[in-house]
Amino acid sequence: MSSETASVDVCLLQTLSSECTASELLELLGARPRFISVDGSHECDDVFLDLVLCEQLVSTKGMIAIDDFLNPVALGVNEAVHKFFAFPRLVVPVAYISNKLFVAHRSVAEKYKQCIEDSIVGDKTQPESEKFRTSLSHGRQKVEQSLWGSKVLIG
Question: What's the predicted TM-score (pTM) here?
Answer without folding.
Answer: 0.89
